[in-house]
Specification:
Layout: E1 2-11, E2 14-25, E3 30-34, H1 39-42, H2 44-54, E4 64-70, H3 82-93, E5 104-106, E6 109-110, E7 116-117, H4 122-131, E8 136-140, H5 144-147, E9 155-158, H6 161-168, H7 200-212, E10 216-219, H8 226-231, H9 233-236, H10 242-254, H11 259-264, E11 268-269, H12 277-281, E12 282-283, E13 288-289, H13 291-294, E14 299-302, H14 310-314, H15 317-322, E15 324-329, E16 332-337, E17 341-346, H16 365-372, H17 377-381, E18 385-388, H18 394-397, H19 405-422, H20 437-443, H21 448-461, H22 465-481, H23 489-497, H24 507-516
Parallel strand pairs: 3-4, 5-8, 8-9, 10-17, 10-18, 11-14, 14-17
Antiparallel strand pairs: 1-2, 2-4, 6-7, 12-13, 15-16
Helix pairs in contact: 7-19, 7-22, 16-24, 21-23, 22-23
Length: about 525
Amino acid sequence: MLAISLTAAVLGVEAHLVRVEADSAPGFPRFTMVGLADSAVKESEARIRAALRNCGLPFKWDRRITVNLSPASLRKYGSSFDLATAVGLLAADGGLSFPCLADVALVGEVALDGALRPVSGVLPILLLARRHGLRAAIVPAANHREAALAPGLPVHPAASLPEALALLARDELPPAPPAPGPTEGGALAAGDLADVRGQFLARRALEIAAAGGHNLLLVGPPGSGKTMLARRLPGILPPLLPDEAVETAAIHSAAGLSAEEAVARRPFRSPHHTASDVALVGGGLRPRPGEVSLAHNGVLFLDELPEFRRATLEALRQPLEEGHVTIARHRGAFRMPARFQLVGAMNPCPCGRHGSPAAGCSCTPGEIRSYLGRLSGPLLDRIDLHVPMRSLAFDEVSGPPGEATASVRSRVTAARERQARRAGRPGTPAMNASLAEGTLRRAVRPTAEGLRLLRHAVDRLGLSARGLERVLRVARTIADLIDSEEVRPSDVAEALNYRCCVADTGGAAGLRELGESP
């Protein structure tokens, strides 16, 4: 007999429907699995044999058994096909009947004792099943909480293979039990912004970056609070919108990470400076999302920015500009979302003391030029806010706490709501950093004084067209923070102040000046 069950393969962050075709026929005993299956998929035969025996389920192994994973041209990875394969084999054997098999997605790894173990990529598979109009899905009980993030599809948890078979043996599936909601995560899990003393310019830049979705570069000596500030950025960002939450959770699920933690608060990813190109942008033999995709709808923090390999940093240019990354390999092209806020932190020189009055710098001018020259002009041009930081005096460190995260987050949320209304998309992410060019020109109409400032910046600082556009975006965000429809000359001047030290033609020289700025 021939039986067909449904499951899915996850490549990158997308799931693809897979039909598991199981055929059992008289002949020399042999088990054959075809359909570009990797070793973990082919090893399912041993797991299923032991599971059926230990669960007391009869099966005729003394036949010619063929399992085809269709489409055969799609590469299959992992153990999530076990449940669909086991059910298909039992149906093809003819001993059991499953009336509901035709439109139910089956996902899970089968243990030797018949238990269903959790697998990665469940959420993308459930979203795919909903798009294809499947009636329900059966997943391991440990993945049931993740299923709550995919509304609109009844999901039945099963702790073991016999439990899944009992569900499929019914003429109609029972009502699906409600999935437990995701655990709530506190916005202050990484600390409160009030913990940051002093550094008023950097705090102001952090608020502007959060309000408009702008990229940020912090330059200062060790211990000045760069990492402390960056880790508090997710706390002042508004909560994820429903669509953003599902999209973010699906990426983390595909990567084998906790989907619940991904929606508790906006992602914050901080890869080590030794990370490879693949680790940062994704790819590999089995296409997986990289750090830029795991930071989607959140923050990507690159500490010690010049210590990253230059080729690795240059790979950020496409996702920074387009909001996604395309991985092209000989097996196909995979597009993964990567709309994140970049926060970079660096020292002004290799020893970190350049420009500090308290401690002399031991670096030679050549070493400083080489260190700062590791960042290319095109990459710096895509960073909207460049902020100098300095070491704090004792009175500043021991002074009163700064403004709390909650009050800053309320202003940021209000500013983002104004941006969404202006773009005609209330309730959706519509930040100034990603506004369409036509919408930006209508939203920003500088006065004569503002135009004079912009002309001076282009003539004297060598700002590119992209740099000029980003200054206007930042100026629009500054105005939104005070609920002003007019972009004033002071808004333009403040926006220029955040990037006046870095120009297209002198990135390293500009950064050197930035490190010396008070």
